[in-house]
Amino acid sequence: MRGLLYWAIQRKWLFAGLLAGGLLLLPPVPADLTREGRVVLVIALFTIILFVTEAIPLPAVALMIPVLQVLFGIDSPTEVAHSFMNDSVFFILGSLMLAVAIVKQKVDRRLAVILLRFTGPKVNRIVFGLIAFSACLASLIGEHTVAAIMLPVVLSLIRYSSDEQRSSPRLAGLLLFSIAYSCAIAGIGTPSGGARNAVMIEYWSRLFGEHVSYLEWIKYAYPLVILQVPILAIILLNRFVPEKKDLSTAIRKLKTQVYWEGRMRSRDWLTVAIFGATLIEWVFFSGRIGLGAPAFIGVCLCLITGLVEWEDLQSGVNWGVFMIYAATISLGTAIERTGAASWVASHFLGVVSSVGLGSGPGLLAAVAILTVAISSFISRAPALGILSPIVLVMAQASGTSVLAMGFVTAISSAFTYMTIIGSPANTIIFSSGYLQAKDYLRAGAWMTLASLLILWVTSETYWRMVLPR
Amino acid sequence: MKFLMCIGGVEPSVETIRFGGRIAKAFEADISVLYVQPKAPHAVRKEIQLAREKLSEWEIELPGVRVLRAAYRILSEEGVLRPSPRGEAVEFQALKPEVRGAYELELPGGQGQNIRLRIREGDIVEEVNKETESEENDLVIFGASRRRQILQKLIQFVNCSVLIVKNPKDVTYELLLCTDSSVPARKAETFTARLAHFLQCRVLILSVAKFKNREHVAMEGAERASRLLNKAGVRHSVAVRTGSVTEEIAGAAREDTVVIMGASRRPEIWKLVFGSKANRVAERVPCPVLFVK
């Protein structure tokens, strides 16, 4: 009895979600909303409650989404299954697998050697080098992988720069946030930088017939990465003034630790070649063969050449995240198809129009702020999966560019600097034990403001010139 | 016997570990020191695991090891750990990953018992219960949490006897045995007899009748406890009072007292909604409290 009661207490939000969902299904359906639309919105609310509170494992929530769609008659089992799998989901899975293959090669020590060649012992140079280096990598292979790879490099620097742990808290904050925030700003640069980018590409294609290739994404989004790199360095160096300006001793010790790795081995070069080939396929052929196929070709080559074993992929890939993306794309599609997106969009537009933000730049700014707020507390996959169809429909209804709205939503979801759970990189650096929650506000608030401003200016200048009307 | 000492936070409570170490030493009990850290969100658990693997490859300590290191040092100072041939406590070795669901370091104790330092991740009650199930612990020792809700969860939902180390002092303690005619109270009496025997301390038996006409029942309970302690050769005195149980216990408890009481018999749902005597006592008294289950 005691165990059962404790189990129930731990899952109180599951019961609260069920109760809220049940109550919302009782009143008559609003005249301007279909029955299916209402049910889909209730499922969305229920899943959001579970995503925020983690009352049950997130992959279980992902599995519940198709089950609920089938049980409530939103669509046939076959159609629901179809909505689960698409090129973007393949791309996400392939990218996760490629990241595992790259990590398996234990390139982190070699990356540290390359990084240290370019940075001297001065802290500001190290910070700039860390940011630029991590940003370059994170825009290609995913921010969580880069954060995990770079964490030991930075922790070694912190450890070697002081005899006692925690004796240089500002230096620790500076170096750790350099990794996490550079991963965040770079994840928006290419479709492979973050799975949310692939989700947006899928929605553009599925809902509006707009096809954005890998290269086009880079053309529109990468300038934001380049603009944010120096700004991030300046903000961090001002918010975390380091106790030491020179890390000669730490660099010397770290070099001694990593230099024994020696030259690149043949399998390292093979990994680089396979990833390079995948990148070329994404950039030049994604318009014809999609994004998923090149990723899978890369994974197959890694398996065939023995760079990675299938067991490594089984244990290294976060299958739960893959399931969550697949499920939320399915739910997002249902939200649009049942008219629920239009219903929410029209009501939201009614509210923002009353304060003069009903279209164009004002609407883009409102959506960017809303996305940052939501993504800071919910995993980005469900946040984007559910929010995107609504904001895209809203853009269409208000005469705003659907592409601009999609980019604003996907990109601003990366500006989750202020919370520990805002991004995988934020959580990874927090796990080092050097940071407190308030540290995230210290630099994150300024970085959020700067990033939102850069995004808004870019959308009103650069995108107006280059985005198709 | 097997004791589990649970520590948390960035800085461990030195006094809590010292207090728990002394009790474990007196009993010559096997002792596990468990550090429970919050679990990462599901969406990034793999990535956190990857980061930890990378830290291990670089020989950087896992988070939580620093807290265990401090616990290890305190237990060494208390003489709970066996000294090396050079006369020093054994060196701190790397934690072995994933031993029965936790990271573990096993060390020999001063009296030949086992000392385990372990790290688990998740909800504190669930992880402590997993640990007590796999290790069959007799007692779980916690520092007093300032958060009322956590204290209530620990007292009510941990599956074995719980010692809340509140306001520990470097003094000779007197045990305050709170008894009545219930089965849990009998368990508390037996535990008190053993504890007093090992720690060589005095016991005050306190039996409280809620109403005047129930005084004879309280007296019977006190006499039964007294007979048991006499048999164990423990010095003790008896007090029978009338009034609120919580008030009387709080009135009798001093800073150099360890309050010992049996678990409440009320239904679990009642205790959850309205709280239990155990919770109220733990909040009111200025000293450690032991709940025997």
How many DSSP H or I helices of chain A? 24
Number of strand elements of chain A: 0
Spell out the helices and strands of chain A N to C.
Answer: HHHHHHHHHHHHHHHHHHHHHHHH
Q: Which of globular, elongated, flat, extended, rod-shaped describes the shape of chain B?
A: globular
Distance between the termini of chain B: 15 Å
Name the helicity range of chain A. over 70%
- Which CATH top level class of the largest domain in chain B fits? Alpha Beta
User: From N to C, what is the helix and strand string of chain B?
Assistant: EHEHHEEEHEHEEHEHEHEHHE
Structural class of chain A: mainly alpha
- Provide the structure class of chain B: alpha/beta
What name does CATH use for the topology of the largest domain in chain B? Rossmann fold
Give, in spatial order, the strands making up the sheet with the most strands of chain B.
Answer: 3-4-5-2-1-6-7-12-11-8-9-10
Low-confidence parts of chain A: none
Please report the distance between the alpha carbons of the first and last residues of chain A. 63 Å
The percentage of residues in β strands of chain B lies in 15-25%
